[in-house]
Design brief:
It is a single chain. This protein is mainly α and 116 residues long. It has one domain. It has helices spanning 3-25, 30-34, 37-56, 59-64, 70-82, 89-115. It is globular.
Amino acid sequence: MLAEDRDLAYLQTIVLLAERIKTHLDKVTVAQFMDSYDDIDLLSYRLSMVGEYANKLSASFRASHDHMPWIAMIGLRNIVAHEYARVDPSRIWATATNELAALEKLCRDQIELRES
């Protein structure tokens, strides 16, 4: 499989994860989120998967979109996977509610370009 084809598959997966995160966010307030280990775990896991797929994107793709915080995304994935005690619920909430939209838009735009 070509790197461009792999990138398309990874972009589609990131969009799917972003949609699932947004669907869950529609069901909880920040207060409910902060009081629920299940919600914290769910969003932490999904954001870590975003980081996993961001890491799988080709270096050339990431370099051509260097305005995105790739290192931070991958770093969050590593914290969730390897240092879970360091997960900061307020950071998870902020990432999901404030920062994910820009990544989702980039992914959707790139999918549209590649599929047209």
